[in-house]
Amino acid sequence: MRIAVVGPGAIGGTVAAWLSHSPFVSSVTLCARTPLDRLVAEAPDGRLIEASPRVVIKPSEIVAPVDWVMVATKTYDVAAASRWLAPLVGPDTHVAVLQNGVEHVERFAPFIAADRIVPVVVDIPAERSAPGRIQHRRDGTIVVPAGEAGEAFAALFAESVIAASTTDDFTTVAWTKLALNCAGAVNALTGLPGGVVREAGVADLIRAMVRECVLVGRAVGADLGDHIPDWVVERAETSPPDSVNSLLGDRLAGRPMEWDARNGVIARLGAAHGIPAPLNAMAATLLSATK
User: Fold this and answer.
1) Sequence-distant (≥ 6) Cβ neighbours of residue 221 within 8 angstroms
2) Greatest CA separation found in the chain?
3) What is the domain count for the chain?
4) Could you give the residue numbers annotated as active site?
């Protein structure tokens, strides 16, 4: 398999490093904004996973289509990421979208046929310390919809520490991840790491935000239990108090934030189904105005 990874951040870099060592992958091309000398990912067990994929910084440098394009950019970078598709996509190419939120297919449908898109829910705790340098903190998981394309995608990771699997209910998996992610707005709005959940009233606020997500998710077909809000709070309370989620990390670094994919989508789809989601709407509005 010939692979191209668009976006060499923490997730894209980790995936590219592991796939560079896969016996099922013949070549890895990294599509980046700036040149990289190599990838070095520190694995959860302390090993250094080093790779030297071909790095290109302009779509015109692509010489031939690949079997898989893996898009690992932020959700707000879809337009920029789409410029890589024309030279990379051939008659049999699939595009795997490794992004947050629940609108993987909708984001890329304007650029490629929907049946060529494989949405991916990613849970890989990794941080980029410098261009091409990544700390992969925990093995992590990848989940894709069941089917021929999903099975082929999951098989690429068989020799890595990343557990890739398929599911017959991708909608529920994606909305469960969104329930976790929407709560991160509290950290981004306060500018405080994970320990803020222990402040008075914050846990109840998170429960209420997640409850909105659960109700909207159910309306679009996700099988979400009543326990989800308490589960999200428990995850937050048992995480390191100095942990920084990606939404807060982006704000602290002065980067754009994925407020729409995490909170705005809940408000938008809620409105479409007649389900109020005022807390997520407020979070999206405030984050959109935060510089």
Assistant:
1) 171
2) 57
3) 2
4) 177
